[in-house]
Specification:
- The protein has 4 helices and no strands.
């Protein structure tokens, strides 16, 4: 979901990064779950309906990545990542979110592009 820092670092720095990563991912997952439960329009634009379990996992991973992007950049559009990016950092994050969505589309096993999120939302 987020780029991993590379290069040498102290064990303390690695621990701090890992903790922040866990918090960011938990927040993004909660945002995705809330969006799905609220049936936000952007969630219907990601992936197939009636897909297999592996695709379901990829669908939710993509929704989580998109939810994190939407929160960071205050996206309110019905489109998953909204309009164009305003700077290089946002452009890179936007491409990462779009890549997650495209990966699900590539794995699609159904003719429909709508998602029955409540059927795949983890309880």
């Amino acid at each position: 979901m987020i780029p991993e820092p590379l290069g040498p670092m102290s064990a303390e720095d690695r621990l701090a990064i890992d903790q922040r990563k866990e918090l960011i991912e938990a927040r993004a997952r909660a945002l995705a779950e809330a969006a799905v439960a609220a049936r936000q329009p952007w969630t219907r634009r990601i992936g197939p309906r009636d897909a297999g379990r592996g695709v379901d996992d990829a669908l939710f991973d993509a929704a989580t990545t998109v939810a994190a992007y939407r929160e960071r950049y205050k996206v309110t559009s019905d489109l998953p990542v909204g309009g164009s990016a305003k700077n290089d950092t946002q452009r890179a994050d936007r491409q990462r979110a779009l890549a997650a969505v495209r990966a699900v589309s590539a794995a699609e096993t159904s003719e429909s592009s709508a998602v029955d999120w409540l059927a795949i939302l983890p309880l």
